[in-house]
């Protein structure tokens, strides 16, 4: 690559050279599982980075808009695999691209040789070219664009419209076709053909027709969009030329075509958000820290849940770059040095020093204002000294060690603390520090093996003993030693063991080739007839079928496969993939594997498929297997091309979904296609089918038979699901049971049972929260130690229910010593009744401004202490963190805590939910500094957040018109709908209807009633747009969102640029909405003026009947002109109770109050 300057400076000329080289392609080392020399190229047409090994084979691509960071040096896990000295790349010639739309980012780690004077360039024929596209290719492309393919006849008509020849499109024709498709939904233009429109829309018959003239567009901007800058015609002209592609049309009097006008409406330049609110207000950064909301993270090191997820320094980098200013470090004693992880859990551990270095490198990339480190200390004194040394060595002058002002009586300001890192840490006691037990996490935690009577195997669960109960989470998914080892099993080309072996393979290939034309390389793979561990590759060449043995071998305990002895592969799948990309060379021929011959109806060989099973029988089978994700597929009665998948979801419910066979494809829902039912099952084993449920447990006839004959086979996963009639007491029941699923009685002596959710208090006390799979009450069990073991486990601990002898839970651990620890805790519980309820109320009494107090989300001072809490927050800092039950890393609503002045409301940034999106919206203010000044009103002695909720400030009327380029949900085409929500003091929500099978350019009809939101607290109210898609179960699935503080919303026809769950932009995706904003006084005035105008019209009519003299107030204009001259003594704000009284006042007494209202608003915004 072009070299750097001597001082590391890059000239513009060198930048141009590098850009040119990257567009042509540069041969670099790509660090993945192994270091490979590949060609890396920037493709400007598609805005992608691609890395390839050959001219016709792309290894991978990433979108430029998904790049979050480019980091110099060998600073990624990819480089850590090559620390053995074999890699010769210098630190200065390596860099990593971090990209993606999830919390944990993907990496592309690259290196170049130092002595390369000039990049190796690839041949010209490698460059990405788009010569033409056929109708067949277009049919495959349109579903990827979230657009349902029309009929072949309709597509042919579109080809003819754009002048295509022989069913192929060149680039210009494709561009025209795209415009035609986008123009199909031209109902948007009806908005601008109404009498109330600010300009006259021209010809709209075609997308390239001239529609909007310069002066018409200026009127639209001034009167509809309320853009004051549009009074300058030069600025309007400049804006128009940016949306006109044809340079010949960029004249002094530009005109918009229909497509260009729509492009403007959906553009970021027409965004609903006023960017001036995203600018830094330097004057607002001089208040004490206690006057700000501060962007804060909880357990910053975690990338997932609080029990089993990975701890990573990259989580700190991600949070800091997202604008977080307060991060948390849970510090524990490690082997020779402190470590960071979530104590007493299975989360991974990372070095304290690595975390400090990552914070130092990224603390001030997004914001230059101070970073606060919230330290949760569990280290002994010796390692705390190590921590102090590391802080000083790494942070240097950035670390705040002395007061900013010695005699200060309040906290310093963000401006005074620019570039500083502040430590928030509990003071050491006189005795020093030591490790203390955190009783919130229970009496015992860890992994246990639990016997599963469904699968007849041991499964590993994370378990916690707390409050005399054993809580266990979902079992760990079985990790395969080699994830690619059995990949071939789910491939369409693998036929397993064939009954007639070679003859059947030849027959299948011959039939397939006769049907498709018979390309050389058409193939299938089957198990060898002769050798148990080998396979046979059968393929078509020169009009006949040939067979080749795939041999297996073993080396160092690992199995490998090969066709030729000099080239080994770790799996059969790898063998086939290699020979699909590279030719198979023999003495007589050379060919690549091409088309795969699929199995004829492979589902017939699967245990989960039933050809003769009714809906009722399927439900009965599923209700016997008490496992979420149990499933079967059945042929629907009397319909040979129709199937149904029946599966069990949460709460014991059984659901059905229809699968229709159309031609050679199986259609689930309306747009999700699969080549076989086996492919469908394999896909939904990896991806959720319904909510979070994946297909996990095939309901085979053998499993059903076992559950029909064995008593209490499912005891681990369900207690008693229904009771006999004679067990019911007429008065108070002695015991209570909970149904795990709904049961409809089939005989007179049976009861109907409705499943109910666990009581809220149970969830509050549950240390595993939503991740809890089940609970065993140890105090009601006898404990047995099976010394002889059970089912392969040498030592087993059994908890046997005292009331039901047949109900037992078998537990095992990794070692006898570990099992004994569990035994001791359980034994203590059975010997005595224990009460381990620890409630600690934190009260706010006396304090100094130097203190920081931390509160659990549900332990803040109550409503009776709100005033005291507000006064505390005016002087000193408070931090709020999630309760311990949020083990799945869910978040709480930050609004009530912001409303009482809490500063650091810490959220789980790794969870992309509504509350992190509200947090991102709040801190999008003030230039993403992470500090937002609370309104002056909140520091007033008379401020009461409850009273503020009753004062109406203004109303917002919203209408969703259309959307473009929505994200694609998996394999199906989106059926989107939009939810509009006002978040803050109230939760108001409206949603559009569902638009079926179009995520490219849906248009929604105007609702019968306008959507009106009432705003009480503009500083803490947010307007949120959420785009969901309705799946085949009529459930909503998140696609995109955009959340804004209402005080920065612009009126008119506006685009809403959509973002992902982490508030990062989605390329091209946007909504078109219409918004009108009117404060309370304006509405009152409008009603009063309408009534007065109506009265004046009647008086004028009456006057004309009685006299020929002219009436003085003869026009609406006169009324408007006369009104402002009047004076008024009223200065109070309009409250809810006053709105009705105001309508009784004459117009002259109302008008001056509008000015007073503006003054009050400006004070509130300060």
UniProtKB/TrEMBL annotation:
InterPro entries assigned: C2_dom, C2_domain_sf, EF-hand-dom_pair, PH-like_dom_sf, PI-PLC_fam, PLC-gamma_C-SH2, PLC-gamma_N-SH2, PLC-like_Pdiesterase_TIM-brl
Protein name from the UniProt record: Phosphoinositide phospholipase C
UniProt entry tagged with the keyword Lipid metabolism: yes
GO cellular component, one term: ruffle membrane
GO molecular function annotation: phosphatidylinositol-4,5-bisphosphate phospholipase C activity
Every C2 domain range: 933-1060
Cofactor(s) recorded in Swiss-Prot or TrEMBL: Ca(2+)
Catalysis: reaction(s): a 1,2-diacyl-sn-glycero-3-phospho-(1D-myo-inositol-4,5-bisphosphate) + H2O = 1D-myo-inositol 1,4,5-trisphosphate + a 1,2-diacyl-sn-glycerol + H(+)
GO biological process: one example: lipid catabolic process
Domain (SH2): residue spans on this chain: 493-597, 608-699
Any Pfam family hit: EF_HAND_2_PLCG
Annotated EC: 3.1.4.11
CDD domains registered for this protein in UniProt: C2_PLC_like, PI-PLCc_gamma, SH2_C-SH2_PLC_gamma_like, SH2_N-SH2_PLC_gamma_like
Start and end residues of each PI-PLC Y-box domain: 848-939
UniProt entry keywords in alphabetical sequence: Calcium, Hydrolase, Lipid degradation, Lipid metabolism, Phosphoprotein, Repeat, SH2 domain, SH3 domain, Transducer
SMART domains, sorted: C2, PLCXc, PLCYc, SH2
């Amino acid at each position: 690559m072009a070299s750097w300057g001597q001082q590391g400076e890059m000239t513009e000329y060198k930048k141009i050279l590098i850009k040119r080289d990257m567009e042509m392609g540069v041969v670099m080392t790509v660090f993945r599982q192994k270091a490979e020399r590949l060609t890396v190229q920037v493709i400007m047409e598609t805005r992608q980075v691609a890395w390839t090994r050959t001219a016709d084979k792309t290894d991978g691509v990433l979108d430029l808009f998904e790049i979050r960071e480019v980091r110099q040096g060998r600073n990624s896990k990819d480089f850590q695999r090559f620390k053995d000295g074999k890699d010769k790349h210098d630190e200065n010639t390596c860099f990593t691209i971090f990209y993606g739309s999830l919390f944990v980012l993907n990496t592309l780690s690259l290196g170049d040789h130092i002595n390369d004077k000039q990049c190796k360039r690839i041949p010209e024929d490698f460059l990405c070219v788009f010569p033409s596209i056929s109708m067949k290719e277009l049919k495959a492309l349109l579903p990827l664009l979230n657009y349902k393919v029309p009929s072949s006849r309709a597509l042919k008509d579109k080809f003819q419209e754009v002048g295509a020849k022989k069913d192929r499109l060149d680039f210009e024709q494709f561009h025209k076709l795209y415009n035609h498709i986008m123009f199909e939904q031209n109902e948007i233009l009806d908005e601008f053909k109404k009498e109330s429109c600010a300009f006259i829309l021209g010809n709209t018959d075609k997308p390239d027709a001239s529609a909007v003239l310069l002066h018409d567009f200026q009127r639209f901007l001034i009167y509809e969009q309320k853009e004051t800058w549009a009074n300058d015609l030069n600025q309007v002209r400049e804006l128009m030329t940016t949306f006109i592609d044809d340079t010949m049309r960029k004249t002094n009097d530009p005109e918009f075509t229909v497509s260009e006008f729509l492009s403007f409406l959906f553009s970021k330049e027409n965004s609903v958000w006023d960017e001036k609110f995203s600018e830094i207000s330097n004057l607002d950064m001089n208040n004490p820290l206690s006057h700000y909301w501060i962007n804060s993270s909880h357990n910053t090191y975690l990338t997932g849940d609080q029990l089993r997820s990975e701890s990573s320094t990259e989580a700190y980098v991600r949070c800091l770059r997202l604008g977080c200013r307060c991060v948390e470090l849970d510090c524990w004693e490690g082997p020779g040095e402190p470590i960071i992880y979530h104590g007493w859990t299975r989360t991974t551990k990372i070095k304290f020093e690595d975390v400090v270095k990552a914070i130092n490198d990224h603390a001030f990339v997004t914001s230059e204002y101070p970073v606060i480190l919230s330290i949760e200390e569990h280290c002994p004194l010796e390692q705390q000294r190590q921590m102090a040394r590391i802080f000083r060595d790494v942070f240097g002058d950035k670390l705040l060690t002395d007061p900013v002002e010695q005699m200060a009586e309040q906290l310093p300001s963000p401006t005074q603390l620019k570039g500083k890192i502040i430590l928030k840490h509990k003071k050491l006691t006189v005795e020093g520090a030591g490790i203390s037990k955190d009783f919130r996490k229970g009496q015992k935690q860890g992994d246990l093996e639990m016997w599963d009577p469904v699968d007849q195997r041991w499964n590993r669960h994370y378990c916690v003993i707390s409050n005399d109960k054993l809580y266990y989470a979902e079992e760990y998914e079985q990790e395969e030693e080699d994830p690619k080892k059995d990949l071939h099993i789910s491939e369409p080309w693998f036929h397993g063991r064939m009954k007639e072996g070679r003859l059947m393979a030849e027959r299948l290939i011959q039939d397939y080739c006769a049907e498709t034309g018979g390309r050389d390389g058409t193939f299938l793979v089957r198990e060898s007839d002769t050798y148990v561990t080998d396979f046979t590759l059968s393929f078509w060449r020169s009009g006949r079928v040939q067979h080749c043995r795939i041999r297996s071998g073993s080396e160092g305990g690992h199995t490998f496969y090969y066709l030729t002895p000099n080239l080994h592969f770790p799996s059969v799948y790898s063998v086939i993939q290699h020979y699909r990309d590279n030719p198979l060379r023999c003495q007589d021929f050379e060919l690549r594997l091409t088309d795969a011959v699929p199995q004829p109806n492979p589902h017939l060989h699967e245990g989960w498929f039933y050809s003769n099973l009714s809906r009722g029988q399927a439900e009965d089978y599923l209700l016997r297997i008490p496992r979420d994700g149990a499933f079967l597929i059945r042929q629907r009665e009397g319909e040979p091309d129709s199937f149904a998948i029946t599966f069990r979801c949460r709460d014991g419910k059984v659901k059905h979904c229809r699968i229709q066979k159309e031609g050679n494809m199986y259609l689930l829902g309306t747009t999700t296609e699969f080549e076989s039912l086996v492919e469908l099952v394999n896909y939904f084993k990896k991806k959720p089918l319904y909510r979070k449920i994946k297909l996990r447990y095939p309901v085979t006839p053998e499993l059903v038979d076992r559950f029909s004959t064995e008593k209490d086979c499912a005891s681990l996963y369900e207690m008693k699901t229904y009771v006999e009639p004679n067990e019911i007491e007429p008065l108070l029941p002695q015991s209570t049971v909970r149904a795990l699923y709904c049961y409809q009685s089939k005989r007179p002596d049976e009861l109907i049972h409705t499943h109910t959710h666990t009581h809220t208090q149970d969830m509050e006390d549950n240390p595993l929260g939503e991740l809890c799979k089940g609970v065993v009450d140890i105090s009601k069990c006898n404990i047995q130690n099976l010394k002889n073991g059970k089912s392969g486990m040498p030592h087993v601990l059994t908890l046997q229910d005292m009331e039901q002898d047949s109900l037992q839970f078998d537990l095992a651990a990794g070692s006898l010593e570990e099992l004994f620890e569990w035994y001791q805790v359980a034994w203590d519980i059975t010997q005595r009744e224990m009460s381990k309820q620890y409630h600690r109320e934190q009260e706010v009494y006396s304090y100094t401004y130097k203190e920081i107090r931390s509160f659990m989300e549900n332990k803040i001072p109550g409503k009776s202490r709100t005033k005291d809490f507000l006064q505390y927050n005016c002087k000193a800092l408070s931090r709020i963190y999630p309760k311990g039950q949020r083990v799945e890393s869910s978040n709480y609503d930050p609004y009530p805590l912001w409303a009482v002045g809490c500063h650091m409301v810490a959220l789980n940034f790794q969870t992309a939910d509504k509350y992190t999106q509200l947090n991102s919206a709040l801190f999008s203010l003030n230039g993403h500094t992470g500090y937002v000044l609370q309104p002056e009103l909140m520091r007033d002695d008379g401020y009461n957040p409850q009273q503020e909720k009753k004062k109406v400030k203004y109303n917002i009327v919203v209408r969703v018109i259309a959307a473009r380029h929505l994200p694609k949900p998996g394999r199906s085409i989106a059926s989107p709908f939009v939810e509009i929500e006002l978040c803050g003091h109230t939760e108001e929500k409206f949603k559009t209807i569902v638009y079926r099978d179009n995520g490219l350019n849906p248009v929604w009809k105007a609702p019968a009633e306008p959507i009106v939101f009432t705003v009480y607290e503009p500083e803490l109210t947010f307007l949120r747009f959420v785009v969901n898609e309705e799946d085949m179960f009529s459930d909503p699935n998140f696609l995109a969102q955009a959340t804004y503080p209402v005080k920065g919303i612009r009126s008119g026809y506006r685009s809403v640029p959509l973002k992902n769950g982490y508030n990062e932009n989605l390329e091209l995706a946007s909504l078109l909405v219409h918004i009108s904003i009117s404060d309370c006084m304006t509405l009152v005035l409008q009603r009063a003026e309408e009534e007065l105008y109506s009265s004046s019209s009647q008086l004028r009519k009456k006057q004309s009947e009685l006299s020929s003299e002219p009436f003085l107030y003869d026009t609406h204009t006169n009324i408007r002109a006369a009104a402002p001259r009047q004076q008024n003594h009223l200065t109070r704000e309009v409250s809810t109770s006053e709105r009705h009284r105001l309508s009784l006042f004459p117009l002259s007494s109302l008008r001056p109050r509008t000015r007073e209202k503006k003054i009050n608003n400006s004070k509130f915004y300060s």
